[in-house]
Design a protein that fits this description.
The structure is a homotetramer of 262-residue chains. By secondary structure, chain A is of the alpha/beta class. Chain A has a domain at 7-119 and 187-234: Rossmann fold (3-Layer(aba) Sandwich). Helix content of chain A is 24%, strand content 28%. Chain A is built from 7 helices and 10 strands. Chain A has a 9-stranded mixed sheet. In chain A, α3 packs across α7 and α5 (86-98) crosses α6. The model of chain A has no long low-confidence stretch (mean pLDDT 94). At the A-B interface, α2, α6, β5, β6 and β8 of A face α2, α6, β5, β6 and β8 of B. β5 (125-137) of chain A pairs parallel with β10 of chain B, so a sheet runs across the interface.
Chain lengths: 262, 262, 262, 262
């Protein structure tokens, strides 16, 4: 039941702000994806094999063969959600349904892929003021909280995201954030779609060094392990079953040719 | 807190099979939508005001003003899902997020609007054999089960739908079906998206007289009442909040112009 | 489908602090139950028929015949949870499973009946400092939020309750509280147990006039309507089913006398 | 993040039928616990360290030190639920809240500990006829389904359990059973209580060789791994927090001595 195969992680970043804004470049000189990649390798060592992909690469760096070879994908985007090709969004969604884990970070709440998987608008209140955030643990037994020692952890200066956050009710609510400006937010949320596991994690911003924070890195590493493909195969296609598993009494159908699904 | 305003219900039907197949015409001479409309009026009387809409009408019969004047929408489609314009799917989704109830019937599992709101493929096993279905109640306190007297109800001859049904985990699981051919199915499922309530109800088919069944009619009428808009307003837009509700200590931001959401 | 029968509401209060502490008596001279009863009648008029019951009455004022004639029960207790007889807790639990709604208010988080129905410890962080609370709506379409106009409502001075709140994951999370002292809390939570609906609502305290607040009163009135019995009957007993609904192939059993359930 | 420590598993069995009924002794000569222990060791090898405990031992074989040294507990009981001391039930519940996993097998649905953790009656329909059961997977990505290759698995002859099963809505529904006699059942259900994970698994009976089935053994082994303690510590006690984390404006309290929780 154990495996020595490393988890294959692909970190996707639109990689725009880090190239055109000095303030962001100062914090993430090689891009947010590079910082995240280093953090994952530091945390998980040989348990992971990390690659990165960015918007400006052909097929955004995530052609079908890369997706097929990805166990867990991290997604970071902010200013260029609209530039992601719908065709690639379709492909990522298919892979999630088949079992690929997806970790949507911070402003990825508004990405095409996250909104696609949620079925809602995913919008929220926000404020760019560098205020304090305190993340409270509401699911202490969850593997994503592994290694957190207290009842909460803090980020001294962040962008605020506040409720109402227009997502479906999360299957597991891991963190709720308190902000000094008066808001709260469901900051750590899990969802299952098809065979795939999804984790939305609020912290992170391009002008604050959030992804250099050790606790944030730990949570993301935990989430990568949690979101790894597991369980039985995905049976997601339309499938006409004849003969039945058990003998049945059939009722006459006028025109069976009517029936085609999906 | 009470209101004498009737619920405004729009029953949408692709209305294809009833016109081009004699077997279907025999069961639903004026279309499935007409049968459902009569049933709702019989069940709910002056509590509802029912209109119908079909695929071949301009804007499929559901232009923005009709959607704006709809509290609960029923959706039936089977062979022409692809002919529904994406622009109308967008509009229906928006209205659901704002609070319109949606009841997806039977083969509407594969409709664009249902798949959009679920974020998954929504496919399933199926068999067209007219076998027996028994629907077990798994949420006895739910308003959608009002008036059902036993632990289950039966349909003598139906199309089978079986698991794995590729939907997100329902928020409330109301019915599980047993089929004589050996399958089970989550046949009554509720979901919330934005401010809107969604009910998926499996029974129904164009070549079986399912929508003439009194219990099926009762469940649909219950669902219409349950799915009616309620509660507080929908705050679903991206909203930048300044000044904050509480005094905060601001951290310098290099370039606030970076930040635009949604 | 409509009924002119009023909802029969029983408000239970331990009624201790209001008699032995002047500070509490000043706010609730006739007891918290009396204030709640007046508020419900003002909000719901002839839709409800309200009675009250207190700890010091025979059988705590809730003998079986009172329970049998109660559709929704409100529960308030703080200092005398241990004085509630287990036998009455058993009786209330049975009635909830059969369909009676239960609204647990504030410090009722630690009551025997709430802990019984949750299966957990239900403890929390708290602070008695009269700080500000802001309740954010996280389920805008829910009937319990009916009539609330904004994204949140506020209480200027309250006792603080903070996470981790040791409850099972709520089925619907209606409110999350922000406290000026730095905590958050899941303040409006629904649960189903058997055929009964349960709402936990955090606001309320004996030394703050929380139950005189119009919004708090509105939420409680909404909850009473939401928690009313509905749906199909409760089949909760152990039941041996012979003959089976469908013909089966029986496998020989060595000793059927072994098997008795529950 | 990895550990070489084996999971400490305690298998609890009331161990009554295997001693007083020849039919049961023939299938489980050393008790169901012995069969389960051998299966776990065969499946998980050095990943687990297994001990067993039975009703007739002092403190039912689960004194506090054994509980403290248990990561995951399996529970099997049928005819002697009432003989389990409430004091031991309290102790097991406390350990689950602290993080110990609990796997309740088959007729353990009616055990004191399972009912305590659920807060409901946990009763169901049943029939002792040795009919066919087919378990359908409804959560294909779940670790508990690891290694199952098809859409379902079958047991040729079992006791039937049918809905309505009086449990709270499961957090994850892993299996739904189909029975040839006409019933369905939520056969694999997960719950979180405090920091602990709970899995209810329906298959198993003393007069059918269910626990000799390789797939059943695989699911139980998967569940042991899934239910292992994980995540952050459990903060479950009542805790008065002074001073607050953030500066607050205090409102005068007439008598702070009123307030003591839990």
């Amino acid at each position: 039941m154990t495996t020595s195969q490393p988890l294959r992680v692909t970190i996707w970043n639109e990689f725009v702000h880090e190239r055109n804004k000095d303030a962001v470049k100062a914090i993430y000189p090689d891009g947010i994806h590079a910082t995240l990649a280093q953090a994952l390798v530091r945390q998980l060592g040989e348990q992971v094999q990390v690659r990165t992909a960015t918007l400006d690469e052909p097929q955004h760096g995530i052609p079908d063969d890369v997706l097929a070879a990805t166990d867990v994908m991290l997604w970071w985007g902010h200013s260029a959600h609209d530039q992601v090709a719908d065709e690639r969004v379709d492909a990522v969604q298919r892979r999630v349904l088949e079992g690929m884990g997806l970790i949507a970070l911070h402003s990825a709440h508004a990405s095409k892929i996250f909104r696609r998987l949620m079925g809602t608008g995913c919008m929220l209140r926000w404020r760019e003021a560098g205020e304090k955030e305190r993340l409270w643990i509401t699911a202490p037994g969850h593997p994503i909280t592994e290694g957190l020692e207290g009842e909460f952890f803090e980020l001294p200066a962040t962008e605020m995201y506040g409720e109402f956050f227009d997502i479906p009710s999360p299957e597991e609510l891991i963190f709720i954030s308190w902000f000094s400006g008066g808001e709260v937010f469901r900051s750590g949320c899990t969802f299952r779609r098809g065979r795939g596991k999804i984790f939305y994690f609020r912290p992170g911003h391009e002008t604050f060094p959030i992804y250099h924070d050790a606790t944030v890195q730990r949570v993301i590493a935990n989430a990568v392990r949690w979101a790894a493909p597991s369980g039985s195969p995905y049976f997601g296609q339309s499938r006409n079953i004849e003969p039945p598993l058990e003998p049945i009494q059939r009722t006459h159908l006028a025109d069976p040719s009517l029936h085609r699904h999906g």
